[in-house]
Amino acid sequence: MAETESATGGAAARGGRWAPGTPILWRYRENAGERFHICRPVTVVRDTPDLLAVWMAPGTEVVRPVLADGTPLHREPLRTRYTKPRAVRRDHWFGTGVLKLARPGEPWSVWLFWEPGWRFKNWYVNLEQPLERWSEGVDSQDHFLDIAVAPDRSWRWLDEDEFAEAQAAGLMGAEQARAVREAGARAVERIAAWEAPFSGGWPEWRPDPGWPIPVLPGDWDRTGVRVGGG
Question: Which residues span the membrane (predicted)?
Answer without folding.
Answer: none
